[in-house]
Amino acid sequence: xxxxxxxxxxxxxxxxxxxxxxxxxxxxxxxxxxxxxxxxxxxxxxxxxxxxxxxxxxxxxxxxxxxxxxxxxxxxxxxxxxxxxxxxxxxxxxxxxxxxxxxxxxxxxxxxxxxxxxxxxxxxxxxxxxxxxx
Length: 134
Fold this sequence. Notes:
mainly beta
């Protein structure tokens, strides 16, 4: 990744029982991540349509992506209108990994930063889809 990506730092929340259902996903290996943008599917109606990929607004780009806080993207409306979840960014290019069928591993992410709430219809933690089976 040549350009320094910046975003909002989010904390991961896991099962108190210590069970990893992510099969080694980001949220099992790190305590924090950096939200760098959104992938909006709400205007996608056909196979040839592509989601709108937007980096966070300049006011939300406060923390650099670090090795211990990898980049993630907020996906909006892929399956239902108001659904939101996080997916990992491609570690080399920083773009969302859209070619992978991500699955939920049971972990969540959130922050107390009010800028995060501007991206959500309600204040809540967001599912992390960082499990993939090869």
